[in-house]
Amino acid sequence: QGGRSALDYGGVPALPGAAVDLTGLDQVVDYPHADMTITVQSGMTVAALQAVLDEHHQRLLFDVPDPARATIGGALATGVFGPRRYAQGRPRDSIIGVSFVTSNGDEVKGGGRVVKNVAGYDFPKLMTGSLGTLGVITQATLKVRPRPGASALVWLAVDGPGALEAYRPAIDASALRPVAVEFLNPSAATILGRSVGLVGGVWTLVLGFEDAATSVAWQVDHLRSMAQGPVEVLRDDEAQPLWTAMTDF
């Protein structure tokens, strides 16, 4: 266990046992930022890792709920992800190297510290989402990427699920490249909208854009021209609370 933020994941253990606390394994092992990879111990919290990446204007490719508590090892073991999965993939798409300890106490390593083809069995992807059933993850190497120049979330009220049939082909045929596409029922829209002062209570389509500032501005304006109802736009720091709320939700 790490931050104990996902103890309700997986099945109930069949037998009593001891919990192995990994929060003491919280160090950066290697960070060649020019190569856009980082190797960390599994007990490091996601927020602490992101603080290290911020020094070089980089970030993880996947979102993790409750990052101040959740550890990297826990995020990988559960395979959890957030709204950016649509464009950036799951944790298994970010991990390129892993070390873990088996139930016999043997340390096993797989993958490497550079982004290239590595001979052998793909242990990093195998361990991601395994919920600790195959071993205890102790270290991981992850791909990171530069922070985008701009970010925006478009909050678009629609009449109901049928409205998607109008928007989907139009978006597919356009030059829009959203990194997140979330469709919220009225209850979810109320809960998430409340966090940023937006009106919920109706079916809502949320599209996220991240790229250079000019690209994001063009995509937002183009989506406005396609919209058939009220549109709200949150940009950059203003959008971050909604990104966080969608991830945690």
Question: Secondary structure elements and their pairing?
Answer:
Blueprint: E1 28-30, E2 37-41, H1 46-54, E3 58-60, H2 72-78, H3 85-88, E4 95-101, E5 107-111, H4 123-127, E6 136-146, E7 150-157, H5 164-173, E8 180-184, H6 186-194, E9 204-211, H7 213-226, E10 231-235, H8 240-248
Antiparallel strand pairs: 1-2, 2-6, 3-6, 4-5, 4-6, 7-9, 7-10, 8-9
Reported for the largest beta sheet, the result is: 6 strands, antiparallel
Protein structure class: alpha+beta
Strand content: 15-25%
Arithmetic mean of pLDDT: 92
Q: What fraction, in percent, of the residue positions are helical?
A: 25-40%
Order of helices and strands: EEHEHHEEHEEHEHEHEH
Q: What is the approximate shape? A: globular
Unreliable segments (pLDDT under 50, ≥5 consecutive)? Answer: none
List how many beta strands DSSP finds. Answer: 10
Number of contiguous helices:
8
Rg over CA atoms: 20 Å
For the record, give the distance between the C-alpha atoms at the N and C termini, rounded to a whole number: 22 Å
Please give a structural write-up:
This protein has 249 residues and is of the alpha+beta class. It has eight helices and ten strands. Strands 1, 2, 3, 4, 5 and 6 form a six-stranded antiparallel beta sheet that branches. Strands 8-9-7-10 form a four-stranded antiparallel beta sheet. The longest helix is centred in the last third of the chain and has 14 residues. The protein is globular.
